[in-house]
Design goal:
This protein is α+β, with helices and mostly antiparallel strands. About 40% of the residues lie in helices and about 20% in strands. An eight-stranded antiparallel beta sheet has the order 3-8-10-9-5-6-4-7, covered by helices on one side. The chain has a two-stranded antiparallel ribbon with strand order 1-2. Strand 1 and strand 2 form a beta hairpin. The protein starts with a helix and ends with a strand.
Length: about 270
């Protein structure tokens, strides 16, 4: 059938069908060599409607392409995982909205528990750049993981050895940070280890005290939680007449003193103090 008829049956526009063809998502069953017209088989209607339904779940086209190539059971698990992520994000935004409403009404919203600790001076390998929103931040983190994955760097125990990301500015659709990934390394081996990873910059971070909030699995901590966490830290600073050091707010992967992992390490959100 012609692209017009197929569009009518599948409830997808010809524009969408052309895009899906270009991306390899839904190529036509036949293309006329002379005219370039696309023709589709009736059996493709189900796939077209499936793609349309997956798009309603806000699944990116690249992800849909991978889902369609999987066995049914694995494809279903992928969709389920995507929905759980969306559900968590929605719940986080609902909490943020509730917090903002209470604050605007002059109430004192519930805050996260804040703790403090002392951190020694340390040598860190870093990678810093501006990032394009939340998706760019996660991609940047994966790039950092990939750089360190096979370098076999020694690990430091405790919170002072945990990998962390510094947010030197807000990271969202309107603001690009910058963001800096950091991996502490033993100071007595710093120069030697830095030579193994020329992609990264070696610097020294001074000893400091920091206020922090324990998050649980970082992968489940949506960015919508972060304004409330940040205000909890700032509120503690004001209440205790403390002062932020300007070293940048950190997301710390405390469950793994090595490189961050894809699968939910426990983390903390910390504000270095002067």
């Amino acid at each position: 059938m012609s692209i017009g008829e197929f569009a009518e049956r599948s409830q997808l526009s010809p524009k969408a069908l052309r895009l899906y063809d270009e991306l390899g998502l839904l190529p036509p069953s036949r293309v006329d060599e002379d005219s370039g017209y696309r023709y589709y088989a009736l059996s493709q209607v189900a796939d077209a409607r499936l793609i349309a339904a997956l798009r309603q779940l806000q699944i990116p086209l690249a992800e849909i392409k991978m889902i369609l190539e999987l066995e049914p059971e694995r494809a279903a698990a992928r969709v389920s995982a995507h929905w759980e992520t969306l559900d968590a994000a929605h719940a986080a935004r609902r909490e943020l909205a509730h917090y903002l409403v209470e604050r605007m009404q002059g109430k004192r919203p519930a805050m996260y528990e804040v703790k403090t600790r002392e951190l020694p001076a340390r040598s860190v390998l870093t990678l810093k750049r501006s990032v394009d929103g939340t998706a760019g931040a996660w991609s940047f983190g994966k790039e950092f993981i990939a750089i360190l994955r096979d370098r076999d760097l020694p690990r430091i125990g405790g919170p002072e050895g945990a990998a962390y990301a510094i947010y030197w500015g807000e990271v969202n659709d309107d603001s690009d940070g910058p963001m800096e990934w950091c991996r502490p390394i033993p100071t007595d081996q710093a120069q030697e280890l830095a030579a193994r990873v020329p992609e990264l910059t070696l610097r020294t971070e001074p000893a400091h005290r920091e206020a922090f909030v324990q998050l649980g699995p970082v992968i489940q901590t949506e960015p919508a939680h972060w304004p409330v966490i940040s205000e909890s830290l700032q509120g503690w600073v004001e209440e205790h007449a403390a002062q932020a050091s300007g070293l940048g707010v950190r997301l710390i992967y405390v469950a793994d003193a090595g490189t961050p992992r894809d699968q939910g390490p426990d983390g903390e959100f910390a504000l270095p103090l002067a």
